[in-house]
Structures are given as structure tokens and as C-alpha cells.
């Protein structure tokens, strides 16, 4: 790995580091509060690596949920990654042997860094994708271990820790709103999500909302390109 690419990826990942270490600490504390040793936090963060479902998984494990329930819950919570993957088909086509890991490590925040990257001369594109993915993964594991250790060393009420994921998503939305000149995707997502929430209820709105949002954005992109060509 050349130094320029590494340091560029590291600088780009600093906001994610700040969020992931804090969120990972919250997850580690939650795991410890439910009686799981620090190495379980590290293992889950290494092989599952899905922040929101890891928080949910703590309750599933504690409640003794069966595999089918856990699988359906995971699909519902992480359904958005199906659409992330479709978006990354072109970007990751030349990733070679690293492609399986890049697919595995595609979190919301990594997706944001990869999609919004405006790489300067001398920064290798595929190495940047890999480094960002590795660094973000490392931050999450580190935070989880720190949280588990702190949770074992300190005694306090962990109620509300799971809200950390909602806070991170809010920060990401605000950051992308401020950095983007066009707000149609964000407005589409917000309005569609509210409408589906009212129509389908809190337990069933996620997948319909994602399908409608994707369809609307594809339509907008198609007609937007057509309009540009006509001009």
C-alpha cells in the first residue's frame, strides 16, 4: 500500500472512526451488561459487522430466539444493503481478490465514503476502497472491545445505549444534506419512509419503503438523464 493512498483513506475515515468507536463502546457495554465476555463482542464485530443488527442481536440472544427469527430480523434490518450492493457493482468490478471482503465490509458509513470519494491524482482507487473498508472495520472492533472492557470495569446503567445508532444515522443525513447541492434523494427518502410507516406500521414499513425509494430514484435518474440529453 502506498503512503499517499493510506493517509488519504485514513483522513477520509476519521469521522467514521469518531462514530464507530463511540458506537462500538455502546455495543460492548450492552454485551457486557447481558453477561457476555469481551471476546464475544470482538468476535461479533469481526464476523457480523453490522452495527444496528448487532444491537438487536443482543436482545435476540438473551431472549433465546431461534435461527429463523434471527434470520428474518437480520433481513428486515439490513435490507438496505441489497441496494447498496447493486450500486457498487461498477466501483468494485476491478477489486480482484479483495472483492469478497469489500462486499462483506460495505456498511452505511463505508458506502458513503466510497460513493462520495473525489480521489486526487496519485491515490489508487481500489486500494482506497480496501483501506477505507479495513479501517472502518478496525474502528468498530476496537470500540466493541473497549466498551466490553469498560463495562466490566465500571458499573452504571446502560439503558438507552442502543439509541447511539439512531444518532449516527441522523448525523450522516445532516452531513450529506449540507455537502450536497441536490436534496431530492433525501426528501424522497424522508417522505416515502413516513408514508410507508403510516401505511404499514412500525414493524413492516422498512422493506416497502426501500423498494419505493429505489424505484423513485431510478425513475428520477432515467428522466433526469433524458432531460440532460435533450438540452
Describe this structure in words.
The protein is mainly alpha-helical and 231 residues long. It has 2 domains: 3-176, no CATH class; 181-231, no CATH class. It has 11 helices and no strands. The protein has helices at residues 3-33, 38-47, 51-63, 67-77, 80-87, 99-104, 108-115, 125-153, 164-179, 184-200, 206-230. The mean pLDDT is 82.
Short description, anyone?
The chain has 231 residues and is mostly helical. The chain has 2 domains: 3-176, no CATH class; 181-231, no CATH class. It has helices spanning 3-33, 38-47, 51-63, 67-77, 80-87, 99-104, 108-115, 125-153, 164-179, 184-200, 206-230.
Order of helices and strands: HHHHHHHHHHH
Give the termini separation.
44 Å
Number of domains: 2
**DSSP summary, beta strand count:** 0
User: Main β-sheet, in a few words?
Assistant: none
Secondary structure elements and their pairing?
Layout: H1 3-33, H2 38-47, H3 51-63, H4 67-77, H5 80-87, H6 99-104, H7 108-115, H8 125-153, H9 164-179, H10 184-200, H11 206-230
Helix pairs in contact: 1-2, 1-3, 1-8, 2-8, 3-4, 7-8, 10-11
Amino acid at each position: 500500500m502506498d503512503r499517499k493512498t493510506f493517509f488519504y483513506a485514513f483522513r477520509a475515515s476519521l469521522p467514521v472512526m469518531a462514530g464507530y468507536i463511540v458506537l462500538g463502546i455502546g455495543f460492548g457495554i450492552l454485551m457486557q451488561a447481558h453477561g457476555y465476555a469481551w471476546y464475544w463482542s470482538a468476535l461479533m464485530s469481526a464476523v457480523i459487522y453490522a452495527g444496528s443488527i448487532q444491537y438487536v442481536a443482543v436482545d435476540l440472544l438473551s431472549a433465546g430466539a431461534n435461527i429463523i427469527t434471527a434470520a428474518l430480523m437480520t433481513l428486515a434490518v439490513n435490507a438496505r444493503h441489497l441496494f447498496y450492493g447493486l450500486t457498487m457493482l461498477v466501483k468494485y468490478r476491478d477489486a480482484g481478490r479483495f472483492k469478497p471482503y469489500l462486499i462483506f465490509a460495505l456498511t452505511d458509513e463505508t458506502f458513503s465514503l466510497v460513493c462520495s470519494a473525489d480521489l486526487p491524482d496519485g491515490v489508487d482507487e481500489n486500494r482506497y476502497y480496501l483501506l477505507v473498508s479495513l479501517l472502518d472495520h478496525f474502528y468498530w472492533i476496537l470500540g466493541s472491545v473497549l466498551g466490553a472492557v469498560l463495562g466490566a470495569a465500571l458499573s452504571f446503567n446502560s439503558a438507552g445505549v442502543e439509541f447511539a445508532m439512531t444518532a449516527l444515522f441522523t448525523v450522516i443525513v445532516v452531513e450529506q444534506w449540507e455537502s450536497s447541492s441536490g436534496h431530492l434523494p433525501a426528501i424522497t427518502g424522508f417522505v416515502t419512509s413516513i408514508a410507508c410507516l403510516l401505511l404499514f406500521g412500525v414493524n413492516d414499513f422498512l422493506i416497502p419503503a426501500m423498494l419505493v425509494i429505489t424505484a423513485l430514484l431510478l425513475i428520477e435518474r432515467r428522466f433526469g438523464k433524458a432531460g440532460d440529453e435533450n438540452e
